[in-house]
Amino acid sequence: MQRGSQSMPLNLSEPCLEIENAGFLQDEDERVDYYGNLKRKLWNIPRNLIDIDISCVVGVGSYGKFTKGKVQQHGAQTGGLVQVINDKELEKAERRVMLQELDLLIKSCEHENIVSLIGICETSTTLLVVLQDTKTSLKEMLLQSRQRDLKNNKFCLITENKALQICMDVACGMEYLHSKKIVHKRLSCRNIAISESGVAKVSGFGLSHIRPLHETPDYTRWTSHEMLKQTRFNPKAEIWSYGVLMWEVFTIGATPYSHSANKEVAARIIRGMRPSQPSYVGDELFQLCLQCWQVDPDERPSFTSLLNELLPLAESPGTCSLSFTHYNGFNYEPHVPQYEIETP
């Protein structure tokens, strides 16, 4: 879908991917050339250099299942996530979209805050798309950090500066995506990967989208006011989602609007409900979240301006805007897993 097209029905679990200046190629021969051009931009991995276990499925992508794998690269084995696509079985229109999503990864994968595309491998029946395998998702890391740090008298295992650095990493990745005219539409902590070195990397868009085998994520709680009203998409909707993501980070993985069930949360957001300010998040920092949740998209900041606001906070040795110091009566904001997935 190109900008300027008519609004399409909103699907909150599987948002439509939007790409500027990348119209579908109508002619079959042109499409083959398009694929050939894409192949010249990335590593075409020989099949004997990839070791995958088809029975070890870790999730589902847009066009096939993801398995763990290893790739022989520069004389060593590199861990990878492999989406196994039976591309010969795809309908013509599906294949066109798949190729565009592959193009998205090629355009974006060189940034350190975006999950990397290692390469592709063609067999007689399948296309293997190999992505960088990261340590965990940001959501999982936050929830695992919900433990008391007695030594430092903190209520979690990550520091305030680390939380702010994660927000910076995500903003850097999103700033780069937007510079390439790519929008995400699934921005939340579950779609941010954490590398072995602790760097946050934007994932979950295009062919990097992966969901659990037996559940479908519901992104209503991260969706902007105007998109819930099914208006034409504005890239500033991503800023709204980013504000909710920051709140997720500050609350160590809490569920936004945990007091509202899925069937009622959209209407409440439209009527003005917003995530509340935790007592340990300072006014200056929470004000950034509130700016992201402006009803008028044009009033929301850009990722560049958010980075400028976050930089001095993240680089200072300590911050008065965020404190994870434990105090009497502290309770985590609730994490309600069933509110983050689609309900029958």
UniProtKB/TrEMBL annotation:
SUPFAM superfamilies registered for this protein in UniProt: Protein kinase-like (PK-like)
Pfam family, one: PK_Tyr_Ser-Thr
Cellular component terms per the entry's GO annotation: plasma membrane; receptor complex
An example molecular function term from Gene Ontology annotations: transmembrane receptor protein tyrosine kinase activity
Any GO BP: regulation of neuron differentiation
Domain Protein kinase: 52-314
InterPro entries recorded: Kinase-like_dom_sf, Prot_kinase_dom, RTK, Ser-Thr/Tyr_kinase_cat_dom
PANTHER family, A to Z: RECEPTOR PROTEIN-TYROSINE KINASE, TYROSINE-PROTEIN KINASE RECEPTOR
Protein name listed in UniProt: Protein kinase domain-containing protein
